[in-house]
Write a structure and sequence with these properties.
Layout (H helix, E strand, L loop, with lengths): L10 H9 L8 H14 L4 H14 L5 H5 L3 H8 L8 H17 L2 H9 L22 H12 L7 H10 L11 H5 L2
Helix pairs in contact: 2-3, 2-6, 2-7, 2-9, 8-9
Length: about 180
């Protein structure tokens, strides 16, 4: 069975590729969680975050933005002492800031609407013949990144934003030889 080359053979990565990556996510809270995790991934491999995802969910109160928006220095100190997650002050602070921005936008439904309007509610369907044809960012991810930053979000540059768009199915970037490309068309 052909897959995108980036997932390799690690069973966790293969399962993520085959069942989650690129599947359109319409739940605003889940979209927000994945944006936070993609922010934590900056400078690291995604498999690192994937292996720590359960610990992140525990450390970040199930990614409840209402709770996280109330956090301050005591919670940041707790996060920085947690060996189960990526301990980076700027990324922890950004998660709190992003919870506030998420709520300021109006919460889950408003956030999902805000994100999906960038693709007119329908996943983009590029035809990428191989991994070399997949860009690190696009003009659309640059535009969405700017809009997110304008709305108060952090750790959402164009490359992070594009990786997030791929992961959440706003764009089907499975290569055309991958068995998931046609399934998500």
């Amino acid at each position: 069975m052909d897959r995108c080359g980036w997932c390799g053979t690690d069973p966790l990565y293969v399962a993520y590729h085959d069942t989650e990556w690129g599947v359109p996510e319409r739940d605003g809270r889940a979209l927000w969680e994945k944006l936070i995790l993609d922010g934590f991934q900056a400078g690291l491999s995604w498999i690192t975050i994937l292996r720590k995802r359960d610990a992140f969910r525990t450390a970040f109160a199930g990614f409840d933005p209402v709770e996280i928006a109330r956090w301050g220095e005591p919670e940041i100190a707790r996060l920085l002492a947690d060996p189960g997650i990526v301990r980076h002050r700027g990324k922890c602070e950004a998660a709190i800031t992003n919870a506030r921005a998420f709520l300021d936008l109006g919460g889950p439904e408003a956030f999902a609407d805000f994100i999906w309007r960038h693709v007119d509610g329908t996943p983009l369907q590029p035809e990428r013949p191989d991994i070399a044809a997949v860009p690190a960012f696009t003009p659309l991810s640059e535009r969405l990144s700017k809009e997110l930053k304008h709305a108060g979000f952090r750790f959402c540059g164009p490359t992070i934003t594009y990786a997030w768009m791929q992961a959440t199915g706003l764009v089907n970037d499975h290569v055309t030889t991958c068995h998931r490309h046609a399934a998500l068309r």
